[in-house]
Amino acid sequence: MTKKAAIINDLSSFGRCSLTAAIAVLSAMGHSPCPLPTAVLSAQSEFPVFCGEDLSGMIPRFQGAWLANHERFDGIATGYFAHSAQLGDALAFIRAFRSSTCTVLVDPVMGDNGKLYPAYDRGACGKMKRLAQAADVLTPNLTELCLLTDVPFAELAACSEAEKLSRIERAARAAAAERAVIVTGIPLNGDIGNLTVSGGRAKLTRSERIGESFSGTGDIFSSVVLGCLLRGDTVFEATETAADFVGTAIADTIKEPHDPLYGVNFEKFLNYLR
User: Fold this and answer.
1) How far apart are CA 168 and CA 186, in angstroms?
2) 119 or 245, which is more confident?
3) For all residues of the chain together, what is the average pLDDT?
4) 257-273 pLDDT, tens per residue?
5) Could you tell me how far CA 68 lies from the centroid of its own chain?
6) How far apart are CA 16 and CA 216, in angstroms?
7) Is 190 helix (H, G, I), strand (E, B) or coil?
8) What is the pLDDT of residue 140?
9) DSSP state at residue 75
């Protein structure tokens, strides 16, 4: 049976990210993505010039309409929020549609490389912590894990690899509680790692780092994870599938002239996910 997933994220025309990535990935995996846009952008926000429309207010309106239509979801995923008020709306949405058979994935999009994104401040981070507590699965990058657990990013960056991984695992376990946490994009001496913590177990997957940082890879990764969970895979299997898929797309992209702002060539490999 086709699984339905509500995807709360922005729609960016350029960047191969957010809803563009989630709709393609989940559809290819045989699921039915139900997009709920938090903003509409001409391009993802790292482009030198972009315009957009903040869609604050749409989450409760969609929630009301979907409840009136007696809609139910097998999965809910959240990503980028254009305004901090949307974080509270997203939490209310999750509470309204949550069930014992609904998997909630929160990608706590707040920053990268030790810095907050421009749309976020400490108050917004506090709201994201509350939203994260409603998740079954969290997919923070290293910066976001530090923000969620109050671990100084600079201290981690200065650690040896072994000490860094030990501290990341402790922080991930602190964030996990009764949920799964996948810490993505961990720099490891020329490799890139993803640490999955769930049910008292921790597993590190690492692969060679190739190319630079590309737009949308986090959105692709989290969408594959959700798609895998909806079809019954474990969170550890989902992490491996997502990492392999993103790595394949990056390896293909760097074979030709490219601009990382435009994302990676993931579309040609969607059949790998079926």
Assistant:
1) 9
2) 245
3) 94
4) 999 999 999 999 999 99
5) 29
6) 6
7) coil
8) 96
9) E
